[in-house]
Structure formats: structure tokens, C-alpha cells
Specification:
Length: 83
């Protein structure tokens, strides 16, 4: 039969082994914090992407308007406009 001291040593050893295997409450808090930071970063990237696409749409529309103007103006000026 094991003595009280041997049981304590065995229990302490098992606690140390399980520390490497199982996450602690502090480990989970750190993971949660990291995930929160990543979510904020992803939200920012998504917003920036949406803004960039909107600006590209405006730019494309302006280019189209200028091309249409050039298509109409070029013949009147005796020029040929190719795009």
C-alpha cells in the first residue's frame, strides 16, 4: 500500500503532466484575447476592401464617362479615338 507521501508525490507528478496536456483557464483567456484581436483585424480588412471596391466602381464609372465623351468628341475634331 502507498504511503501518504508517495500518494502526494504521484498526485503532484500527475498535475505537472496534465499541465502540458490540458489548457488552463489563463491559457483559454489568452486564446480568447488573441481571437478577439484577429476578429478586429479581419473586420478592418473587410471594411477596407469594401471601401476600395466602392472607390474602384466610382473610378470605373468616371473612366467610362470620359471614354464616351472622347467617342463623341473625336469625330467632331477629326480624330480617331480607340480604347
Amino acid at each position: 500500500m502507498l504511503s501518504t507521501e508517495e500518494i502526494k508525490k504521484l498526485t503532484d507528478y500527475q498535475v505537472e503532466v496534465f499541465k502540458d496536456v490540458f489548457a488552463t483557464k489563463d491559457d483559454l483567456k489568452e486564446v480568447k484575447s488573441t481571437l478577439h484581436s484577429l476578429q478586429i483585424s479581419l473586420d478592418s480588412i473587410a471594411k477596407d476592401t469594401k471601401d476600395i471596391k466602392a472607390k474602384q466602381g466610382i473610378g470605373n464609372r468616371r473612366i467610362k464617362d470620359l471614354e464616351d465623351f472622347a467617342d463623341e468628341a473625336a469625330p467632331k475634331l477629326g480624330m480617331k479615338f480607340e480604347h
